[in-house]
Structure formats: C-alpha cells, structure tokens
Design brief:
Length: about 375
C-alpha cells in the first residue's frame, strides 16, 4: 500500500516549481510527509513505523521524485538513516535502536558527511574528532548538509588522529540544541534547490557518547555493517530519485510528441515523425535498463543476498548507471521539446537542472570507477589506497 495519495503528489507537483524559483525549503511538503507517516516508512512496525524494506521504500521515493524531486531527495536523507538502523536491528544489532525510537518520537535525522577535499566519503575525513569526557568534539566544515532548516539530529563523522599510526573514524549524530556549530546559508545552486543543503561549520560541536554509534578504523578496514549499510541504503535510494525524474521526462516527452504538430507532416502530430519515434524508443530502452538495474540491487539488498566484498561495487555501479541513464533521458526529452523546454517555468527545464545533481552524490564518477575497477581486479582492500 502506498503511503502517499495521488492528490498529495499533485500538491507536491504544484509546489515544486515555486520552491525552485524562490530557492526555499519545502516546508509545506515536509509537514504533509511527516503527517502521512512517510518519514517512518523504514522504521519497524514493532517500534512504531511501517516496516518497509529498502525495495519498498525505493518504490515510494520514486513516486515522489517523479513529481517533486527535491522534496524526495531531501527527505531521503532521514529515511536512509532509519533504514540502516532498521536493518541492523533486524540482524540483532541494537546499537542504533535509539535512532528508530527517536525517529518514531518525531526527531528528524539528516546527513552531514560532505567535505571539500575528501574524495573518499565516510572512510576518511577532513573533520577532526577529539575525545573528551562524555563524548567527542568535532572541528570541520561540512558541505551539502541535508534538511538544514528542520533536522534535529545531524549525522556527521570525523577523524581521531590521537594515535597517528591508527587513525579512527568517529560516526556521531549532533543534536540540534548542541553548541559549537553554525549553519551557513550557502545553498544557491543549479538544481535540487528546495533541499536547502547548507554548509555546517563545526567548531567544537559536542556529541555525547550515547549518540556515537561507531568508532572504526579509517579506510576500508572500517567498513563494518554500519558503514556498508549507509551505502546500502543511500546508493539505491539515490538511484530511485533520479529514476523518478527519468520516468517523468519520458512521460513529458511522449505527451509533447502527441501535442506538437508538424507542417511537414501535413499537420499531423510529431509522434508520427520517424526521428521522434526513434528518440522516444531510445529513451524507453534506457529507462527499461536502468529500472531493472535499480530494482535488482534494491531487491537483493532487501532479500539479504550475500555478495560479500562485491557489494560496494554493485551498489555504486547501480547508482552510477542509473544517474547517467537518467541524465541521458532528460537530455533527449529536452531536445524533443522543440525549444519550449528551454523556458523558465517549464517542468523539463527544472528536471534538466535537477538531474545534473545525480553525479555529485557519493559515489561520484571517479570513486565509482575506482571501486568497480579495484573490485574487478581483486584489490579493493589493498592499502594504501594508491599503491
């Protein structure tokens, strides 16, 4: 059963261009999503949620992304934390049960992992983590901080270099009422504008031990079920954000082909033009391929398929292939628009900008190729990273 009604999706679709044009947070959408139970999709039913698997969550997020991509992308940052915690909980690891309980009580989780100069996300960090009585203090500059206006728990990580020979990555959740951090409003970007993913400056921000779920070795040596689970939920859900955009682009292109007419075709619709038919076919062929890829990875993760050390490769490969395919589809849809898609206010113009953000989410093209190449060569866990 779907969480969101068609009527809700239409309201989100009506508000999406307004949020984009005004570069403001999707406040009304967020409140509707909260009230609907959407933020609790992945929380187990035993703990007050809907108990959705990753595959089920992906399908819901894809529906939302078709009509309001930025709304879907931003709220996904909360959903994937609850999904990771739910997976661990079902495996018997109760270290993140508090995340599920707090989410059920109304807390909003967000992702604050982006860092300038760090091309190995989660595994390394330019942020310094310092052990103090009762927890850790963090010093650093986080970028692409999701849900900046509404989060109450910001997922962050930093590097503890107190033992230079054994650097550790500290994963924590910063409470909103903590001291030692500042949100810097920097979000004025090409696409996905309504996410309001502003910067977060950490200057001794304190995270109590109770909110530190993991302290693990730096690099791939620290990729335990928690770290892998972040990618396990983030990569497939990112994929479905952009798959939703691709679906909508095909829908718009088909509608345009039937609406636009050609004097060269005797006034008939452009749908009867062989070139348009070929282009629509190319879009649909790409959509079939990336849909199958996205669905397979989400299903395999949900069903506990054991790919072992091949999981990182499979996760980033799916996200890379889907986001690249979605961009190709939207580009073709814009070409078929006859120029109308270029105008501000056109849905295609907005989708054209939104779809470009897919390549910036981890893993980007460079890291994806590194992980896939090393996996194929059997040297993914080789240290140092380059050697």
């Amino acid at each position: 059963m779907s969480v969101l009604t068609d009527e809700q999706l239409e309201r989100f679709a009506e508000r999406a261009p307004v949020y984009d044009r005004e570069n403001r947070f999707f406040t009304e959408d967020f409140e509707e999503l909260r009230d609907s139970g959407y933020l609790l999709m992945a929380v187990p039913t035993e703990l007050g949620g809907l108990g959705y698997t990753l595959a089920e969550v992906c399908k819901e997020e894809r529906r939302l992304a078709r009509r309001a991509p930025a709304t879907a992308l931003a709220t996904n940052m909360h959903v994937y934390w609850t999904g990771l915690a739910a997976d661990l909980w079902r495996q018997g690891d109760k270290s993140c049960q508090w995340i599920l309980e707090e989410a059920a009580a109304g807390e909003v989780f967000a992702a604050g992992h982006g860092e300038g100069g760090n091309d190995f996300p989660l595994m390394l960090s330019t942020t310094r983590a310092e052990k103090v009585d009762g927890g850790y203090k963090f010093y650093g500059h986080k970028i692409f901080g999701s849900l900046s206006p509404v989060w109450t728990r910001l997922g962050i990580h930093g590097m503890d270099m107190s033992d230079p020979d054994n650097p550790m990555i500290v994963h924590g959740f910063l409470p909103r009422d903590s001291e030692g951090y500042t949100i810097k409003e920097t979000w004025d970007v090409l696409g996905m504008r309504a996410t309001r993913s502003d910067d977060t400056i950490l200057d001794g921000a304190f995270v109590p031990d109770a909110n530190i779920p993991r302290v693990v070795p730096a690099g791939l040596a620290g990729a335990d079920n928690f770290v892998l689970g972040v990618f396990g939920w983030a990569e497939p859900t990112f994929s479905n954000m952009y798959l939703g955009i691709a679906e909508r682009a095909v829908e718009l292109a088909v509608a345009s082909a039937h609406k636009r007419t050609s004097i060269g075709l005797g006034g008939k619709a452009m749908a009867y033009h062989p070139g348009v038919q070929y282009a629509i076919a190319e879009m649909q062929l790409e959509l079939e391929a990336i849909t199958a890829h996205a669905d397979r990875i989400a299903d395999d993760w949900s069903n506990g398929v054991d790919y072992g050390m091949a999981w990182p490769m499979k996760l980033v490969a799916a996200k890379y292939r889907v986001t690249e395919g979605a961009r190709k589809i939207v580009d073709t849809a814009l070409d078929l628009s006859g120029g109308s898609g270029m105008f501000k206010g056109s849905e295609l113009e907005r989708l054209y900008r939104d779809v470009r953000c897919g390549g910036f989410h981890p893993a980007n093209s460079t890291l994806a190729h590194e992980i896939v190449g090393k996996s194929a060569l059997g040297i993914l866990d080789a240290e140092p990273r380059f050697g």
